[in-house]
Amino acid sequence: MNSFTVEEIKQSVDYQWRMRHIKTYMAIWGVISAITLVVPLFATMSVGSESLVIGFAIWGLTVVICGLFFGVFALYDYSKARSFVRHYKNFKQYETVLDSPETSYWYRGAIYYNVRIKDDNTSVLARTNACFSGMLFSKFTLEDYNNKKVVGLLDPESERFYVEKKVN
Question: Read out DSSP for 39-96?
């Protein structure tokens, strides 16, 4: 069906986009955990050590709640990335041009593309994930991918086109 290896899939746009989300969620959780640890420490310096236990209990509860909240999103992205690696051999490889951008509803400031794939006598309209953005820290910018030819994999069941890389 396609000629990609697992290592090439792990370097693909879609896989890297998911991994970046996981790192972002864990970084936000780490920052919140660090900030909420510092606050009880400073509060107990002025009040006394008897409230240190209460401060650490509040901190622990905050870490657990935030960990569960961000962990759910990270787990979702991890399961999608892992599913992609497990099932990529079932998808057909195509080249197409990313020329029909749409603004994502779920991912603020992100762009997905509608692509038309022609296979034999049929034509399939598929959608990419919202990997692309013109924002400051975006890994996959619109300037690099808009109106460019890419190679990717089409999942015919979900009508999803997974962008692997640009074609030079």
Answer: HHHHHHHHH-GGGHHHHHHHHHHHHHHHHHHHHHHHHHHHHHHHHHHHHGGGSEEEEE
Residue 25: pLDDT over 80: yes
Q: Confirm if 146 and 98 have CB atoms less than 8 A apart.
A: yes
Token pair 């746009």 in the structure block, residue: 13
| Nearest by Cα to 131 from 17, 12, 10, 8 | 17
Tokens for 29, please give them. Answer: 């959780």
**How far, in whole angstroms, is CA 39 from its chain's centroid?**
31
Alpha-carbon separation of residue 30 from 61, 71, 78, 155 (angstroms) = 14, 12, 18, 35
3-state class percentages of the chain: helix first, strand second, coil last, to nearest 5: 50, 25, 25
Q: Kindly indicate the confidence band of residue 47, based on its pLDDT and cuts at 50, 70 and 90.
A: low
Contacts of 75 (CB under 8 A, 6+ apart): none
